[in-house]
Amino acid sequence: MPNRKLALVTGASSGIGRQYAIFLAKSGYDVVVVARRVELLEALAIELKAFGAETKVVVADLSTDDGIQATIKEAQDVELLVLNAGITRAARVGQTDIQEMNQLNRLLATGVVEICEAVIPKMIQRRSGDVVVVSSIAAFVEMPKSALYAAAKTYVMSYGRSVNAELRGSGVRLCVVCPGYVRTQLHQNAGLEHLTVRVPRWLWVTADEVVRSAQKGLSQNKSVVVPGFVYRLARPFLNLSFAQRFWRRKTRRN
Q1: pLDDT tens sequence across 88-125
Q2: CA angle 209, 214, 218 (to 5 degrees)
Q3: What CA–CA distance (Å, rounded) separates 224 from 150?
Q4: Phi, psi of 19 (to 5 degrees)
Q5: Are strands 224-225 and 172-177 parallel, antiparallel or unpaired?
Q6: C-beta of residue 41 within 8 angstroms of C-beta of residue 35
Q7: What angle do CA 117, 226, 249 make, to 5 degrees?
Q8: Residues that are catalytic
Q9: Which residues are paired to 55 by β-bridges?
Q10: First to last CA, the chain
Q11: C-alpha angle 163/165/170, rounded to 5°?
Q12: Rounded percentage of the chain residues whose pLDDT exceeds 70
């Protein structure tokens, strides 16, 4: 397909990132896929070829300087940058050592901002480009035993909202997407399998819903979007005490 645009997706080996890469390949993009697991990225590249996409595999750990710099290098000419790489973390206050805390912050928060700060000015010069930052519903609600995760997700949401306002009229758009519980392997990988049973079915959304919500948010130049009808309906009330009690009861970490 001629004149395909270029996108870069972090955390592309599974879940939301993988679904985003598939969506973009189907939509006429060539894709740079970034993650730590090379075998999953290579399998994805083969899958994307069926949609006519050229795919570049970049193996990188986004909690490290090398990983962030490798991503910045590959993102210089992209039309769409999707910053999705992440993990979830459950721990009581005081139970996370400083090295793990720094790595978590780098992966979920400060590293995301570093990439944006390096890439968005190039988009402004071209007067075109889109950025999607994947945050979380955790930016809106209390998350006992996941305070570090919630703080990091709040950090990138606040940054993204402000940058969105700054970019108005520049030709560049930034949308922060804040999903709730998404049907991926994220919770299993974090040892939170019990949440797949405890959290009601109607609080789960699919990765495809997240992708389409983010794309719709970009098209409408929204600063923040929340996928899923239930979450959108509840969002204005999430900071109320009854909503917080309900959320903690249904999503309690062990």
Answers
A1: 777 788 887 899 889 999 999 999 999 999 999 999 99
A2: 150
A3: 16
A4: -65, -35
A5: parallel
A6: yes
A7: 115
A8: 149
A9: 31
A10: 50
A11: 85
A12: 80
Q: How far apart are CA 23 and CA 41, in angstroms?
A: 15
* pLDDT tens digits, one per residue of 189-243: 444 454 455 555 656 789 999 999 999 999 999 999 998 766 665 555 455 454 4
pLDDT tens digits for 167-190? 999 999 999 999 987 765 554 444
Checking 124-129 for CB contacts under 8 A at 24+ apart, the result is 124/167, 124/170, 124/171, 124/172, 126/171, 127/170, 127/171, 127/172, 128/79, 128/171, 128/172, 129/78, 129/79, 129/80, 129/81, 129/171, 129/172, 129/173
Report how far residue 49's alpha carbon sits from residue 26's, in angstroms, rounded to the nearest whole number: 10
**CATH code of the domain occupying 5-250:** 3.40.50.720
Q: Which tokens hold the place of 254? A: 């062990």
State phi, psi for 173 to the nearest 5 degrees: -125, 145
The pLDDT of residue 1: 43
Q: Taking all residues of the chain, what is their mean pLDDT, rounded to a whole number? A: 86
Query: Are the CB atoms for 86 and 107 separated by under 8 Å?
Result: yes
